[in-house]
Amino acid sequence: MLRIAICDDMKEDRDSLKCVLATFMQSNKYEIQIKEYHDGNELLSENAQVLADFNLFFLDIFMGHSNGMEAAKALRNIDISAPIVFLTSSPDYALDSYDVEALSYLVKPIQPEKLKKALERFLKDYRPKSIFLGGKLFVLDDIVFAESNLKRVHIHFKDGTIVELREKLDTLEEQISGQHFIRCHQSYFVNLNYIKRIENETFITTLNTPVLIRKRDFPEIRKRYYDYLKAITGIGVSL
């Protein structure tokens, strides 16, 4: 799953970019998750872990209440290393884009071929976060949940694969970091991206498998899940 942030104060420009991204990524067999921001201040108000989970940023430079170049510098100052593509109506900041190691600098109106070339460069260098489990390399984002049973851990992947390890869940949890993973029970941790719903103090995953939630921590864990949904969609959820 590629996580992409679009920061632009013009809705029509965001909508146009989303259409191009959806078509291009689908043709290259990548799933994407897009979060929109109206200006740099809104983007930078996110906590650092949310920002660190983005794989690609599109930043307009001239926005009503902020400057996209300054937002880019702020991202680099907190060690956010994901590629940045600038979108702007002026070439004036092109040289400054080198200071933040931008992937591309595109002048509006965006030419589809230039955008396509920028995306091709991104995919060429993109490497999904992976983890060694049982002597094999797995993509971290493919993990739906893990459960502990006696002295073994079963890791469930989105394609239905299950990997069994002689390992403690605590040890495995240390290797699997990211704000979209949550330890929701003594015997479970789960990837929030693969939750369909909450039902009777239980997460129901996209595998239609129930994952238990600690009763004493249920309100806090539910809130964290809903906060995550709001963070990635911009839509609030009523408790």
From TrEMBL:
Residues 140-227 form the HTH LytTR-type domain. The modification 4-aspartylphosphate is found at D60. The keyword Phosphoprotein applies. SMART domains: LytTR, REC. This is Stage 0 sporulation protein A homolog. It comes from the Bacteria. May play the central regulatory role in sporulation. It may be an element of the effector pathway responsible for the activation of sporulation genes in response to nutritional stress. Spo0A may act in concert with spo0H (a sigma factor) to control the expression of some genes that are critical to the sporulation process. Residues 3-123 form the Response regulatory domain. Keywords: Phosphoprotein. It holds the Pfam family Response_reg. PROSITE patterns: HTH_LYTTR, RESPONSE_REGULATORY. It comes from Ruminiclostridium papyrosolvens DSM 2782.
